[in-house]
Every structure is written in C-alpha cells, then in structure tokens.
Amino acid sequence: MKYLFFAIFFSVLIYGQNVEKKEINVQLKNELAQIDHDDQIYRELMQPDISPERKQQIINEKQLTKEQTTVGLWKLMEKQDAENLAKIEKIIAKYGYPGKSLVGEPENKTTWIVIQHSAKINQYLPIVKEAAEKKEIPFRLYAMMVDRQLMQDEKEQIYGTQGTSFNTVKNGVTETISLIWPIKNFNNVNKLRKEAGFSETIENYAKNLFGNDFVLKNYTLEEVLQLQNKK
C-alpha cells in the first residue's frame, strides 16, 4: 500500500506540473527573434570595432548604398525602430508582455529592447515591472528601464545603468564629456545593483561603457545640467 501511495502521489505531482507548464508559442517566438535581429543590425553597423567582413554582410543583407551606411544610418535605424515598436504594440495588445513562459529565452527580452529604444517607456513601464516581478524577464532589465526614464526626465537614476556623452564649450573650446548620469544614492548604488541582479560594480560598468581610462565621478544633477547648458 505504501508503494501504491507514493506512485499515485508522484503521478499527481507530475500531472500538476504538466498542467501548469505553458507551451511555447513558436510562431510568436520566431516573430520576436526577427524583430530583435532588425533592432540590432543597424546598431551593430555603427560599432567602431565591427569587422570589414561583418560590415559587408550587413550591407549585402540590407542592400545599403554608401550614403545609407554613413550619413543615412541614423534615419534607417529610426525608421526600423518605429516599425518594430508598431509590431510590439500589437503583440502586447494581444498577449500582454510576451515573457519567458510564452516565448522562452532570449526572445522574452525582445519586447523590452524595443520599448527601451522608444519614446514610450513611461507608457509600458508598468507591464515591464509586472513581467519582472513574475520573473518573465530579469529584474535588472526593469531597473535599466527605470534609469533610462529617469535620465530622460532629467532626474537622478537609481541603479547607475545610464551613461551619456555630449559636447560642451569651455573657454571657447568644444570638448566631449562622457559620464555616468547622476545617481540618487551613490554610496549605496553597488548594493542596489547587486539586489537587482547586476554582476558588475558601478566602477567596472563605467569602464566597460567608456573605456579602461575612464574615471568615475559622482556628478550632481545640477552640475550635469550646467555642463549641458540647461541651467
């Protein structure tokens, strides 16, 4: 009887797990994979360390003219971003956030990527937060999106994920300044980063973003806005 009890118990347990497990929507997964590819391809072409072979592959794939690979590249990327966002908004309207349980990985990150590259972060931030809380996407992605919106709103960020570069004029000379956007609680940021799922400290992250010679400085919001001639 004891063996029969355990056999029935494990059968019920396995059945319950199978019921809870959702099937991956393969068609949607493939659609998101293509959107992700389209999102990244022009950004890849902008990278200074792209190999000549890979550059030519992209040019051939997209049938780009010489002008499009230089001065016209930003326009192409903006057009592609708009098309991607329109597709993602239709997907969200139908499925909600397409997370890991619906499309698997890494396609669960595609919707986040497209929104992160758009001007509609505020609109979709609540559903991205919900997806992160349900572990449909890594929480660190939500943290990055929060920081991006705070920077766009000219407010202090929380996790130190956003950096920026801009030109400023000093003593009649134009210079480029690169910096990590001001952080609300700088002394506690590495603890917050770890809790959010980031593996790097703010110091290492800044060097990876701007180069090994970059020196991290804890700018105030007022200092940065003054450097940008906004105050």
- How much helix, percentage-wise, in residues? 55-70%
How would you describe the shape? globular
Radius of gyration: 22 Å
Structural class: mainly alpha
Main sheet summary: 2 strands, antiparallel
Strand order of the largest sheet: 1-2
- H/E order of the elements? HHHHHHHHEEHHH
- How many strands in all? 2
Distance between the termini: 80 Å
InterPro entries: DUF6624
Throw out a few tags for this protein.
231 residues; mainly alpha; two-stranded antiparallel ribbon; globular; DUF6624
Question: Mind explaining what this structure looks like?
Answer:
The chain is mainly alpha-helical and 231 residues long. Among the domains are: 90 residues, no CATH class; 65 residues, no CATH class. It has a two-stranded antiparallel ribbon with strand order 1-2. A hairpin with a 2-residue loop joins β1 and β2. α2 runs antiparallel to α4, α2 packs across α6 and α7 runs antiparallel to α8. It starts with a helix and ends with a helix. It contains 11 helices and 2 strands. It is globular. InterPro entries: DUF6624 (IPR046732).
